[in-house]
Specification:
Layout (H helix, E strand, L loop, with lengths): L1 E4 L1 H9 L4 H9 L4 E5 H13 L6 H11 L2 E3 L3 H14 L5 H13 L2 E4 L2 H4 L8 E3 L4
Parallel strand pairs: 1-2, 1-4, 2-3, 4-5
Helix pairs in contact: 1-2, 1-3, 3-4, 5-6
């Protein structure tokens, strides 16, 4: 599977929240290609800081960057794709989530998340693995 881990999947994994087991299984399966968007690393840092892990943020970044097949950064084409995705589904999705979703779409990846905004995107538009939240 080609998978793109959303910020919410990284947070679940890092903080051992519901969904962490599923993310770990994806990471351990060597047949998977795992991608990240650089915006997810930024969001992960913010959540880790709120949970008192500020001193280890760089360690988390290093770990996830080493595990990933690639860390993708948004460019003008990706921003346009995010806008078009948001317009297509007719729902208000925060820009960061729209860019992360468009990143998965551009790679033909399954988006792995536990985010209600992203769950509004039809599976027919973007394959998703929606992680448990409880």
């Amino acid at each position: 599977m080609i998978a793109l881990l959303d910020s919410s999947a990284l947070v679940a994994h890092a903080l051992r929240l519901p969904g962490a087991t599923e993310v770990q299984a994806l990471l351990e399966d060597e047949s998977n290609e795992i991608f990240l968007n650089s915006l997810s690393l930024f969001e992960l840092a913010g959540v880790l800081k709120l949970h008192g892990a500020g001193a280890t943020i760089v360690e988390y970044w290093r770990t996830y960057r080493e595990i990933a097949s690639g860390v993708l950064a948004p460019d003008a084409d990706l921003v346009q794709a995010a806008w078009e995705l948001r317009e297509k589904i007719g729902q208000r999705i925060p820009i960061t989530d729209a860019i992360i979703a468009a990143t998965a779409q551009s790679r033909g990846a399954t988006l792995v998340h536990r985010d209600r905004h992203l769950a509004m995107i039809p599976i027919s538009t973007l394959p998703q693995l929606i992680l448990p939240t409880t």
